[in-house]
Amino acid sequence: MVTLMFTMTGLCAGCGDYLEGTSGVITSPNYPNALAAVRDCRWRFSAPPGRRVNSPSEFNLPRDESTGICLSYIQTFNELYWSAHPSLDNVEKICGNTLPAALNSSNANFNLDFHTHGLAPGQGFSLTYSTEEESMCGGLLPLPSGSISTPNFTLQNGTYVDCKWRMTGEDQGNQTLVFRFDYVDVPGHMANYCREGVVYLVGKRRLFMGRTCGNRSTEVLLTTPFLSSFVRLIANLGLPMRGLPGTYNVSNCGGVHEGSDAQIMSPGYPIGYPPNSICHWLFIAPLGETITLTVEDFRLEENCDKDSVLVRNGYWTGAPLIGKFCGTHAPAPITSSGRYLTVFFRTDATGSAPGFKMTTREVQRGCGGLIHTTSGNLSSPSYPTSYGNNVECRWVIDYVPGYLVKLEFTGRFDIEMDSTCSKDYVLIEESSGGDRWTEVAKNVDKLIQNRL
């Protein structure tokens, strides 16, 4: 999916800052004298790893006597909340004459906005912050196995819990990192893309591997073939949650295959695979190429609810499902639409079979593909020389939830022009999920005039 962002920002001298120290003091403009003219300030706090921001304060931002409305106020929120909700409409406005409860973050990063109406009474605020307290959650998880859990939270409206657990290990191939959560109780719904809360797994090079949210009483699995990965929990909107207790371990199958043809086999092939196997293979072709998967031998149990192979057209667990296979019915060769292909193998606690053997090869397609990197360059075929006839290229930019994509045409832009752009054109579309795409721009002049 592609999201395009148009922004205009203004800065005001002496107001707001980016703070990375372990402690300090910030004050509203003109404090402790009368409030300054209309101001909008933003301070961004970044604590050392494993610490959180604690900020008791002196506070004098009276409400309007007749309406009780906050004319001047502060708001606190997480950066990812602001990315998803730029208006901050659901974030509590804090004002009054009494000292509010200490403003604490759950983790290392935290934002504070200050707005003054200009005509409102009051002196403003003085805030002393420190990073002496440990984070409420998150941290470094040792490999190859361990447990993961969260404390119980009850969140104020607009407050964000942001927990990040990181694993660091050498990817040696033939390994899968498996997270098993006994249950998941996190605000949010998969149907609306977990906007209120989400647990997601990110692998090496920030490849988004999977997510979950909501109230799920049965076991939930998240897997990645990368040992260097992190799990992140983000939740908000004043809803109670129990979190996600679970365990993790490294299984000796799966892995990442990049840049060359490969062969994979189920564990124990051809003698028989063990029970409770979980294997996650990811194949990555160069940009502009695709992957063809060919099954040479395939013998599993007949019931797909017991033992099965899933093949997905992409690199994460929510990528389009090409097929779910079991028994002895080997699928025909499968070719991905982009540069990524995922094979996932899982068995239950009983029974066994010889297993499978598969090979992959890379296929040159010329252009297009699924892009996951945080920045990069795209170009038409044969650029900067002329492109050929009857060329169609489709790039899909996929990214971690909470982030936006900015496109900018920085080099030469020379495409055959006609009044309706019906012959040669660049079309940019965006999607919030699913198969529905909305046109953003097609006119060449518009593309040049606007940096997307």
Automatic annotation (TrEMBL):
Q: Which residues form the CUB domain?
A: 15-132, 137-251, 253-363, 367-452
Name the source's superkingdom. Answer: Eukaryota
Alphabetized CDD domains for the sequence? CUB
What are the record keywords, sorted? Disulfide bond, Repeat
Q: Which Gene3D superfamilies match?
A: Spermadhesin, CUB domain (2.60.120.290)
SMART domains, sorted: CUB
- List the PANTHER family hit by this protein, alphabetically: ATTRACTIN-LIKE 1A, OVOCHYMASE-RELATED
What protein name applies here? Cubilin
Which species?
Caerostris extrusa
* Classification of source organism: Eukaryota, Metazoa, Ecdysozoa, Arthropoda, Chelicerata
Gene name of the encoded protein = CUBN
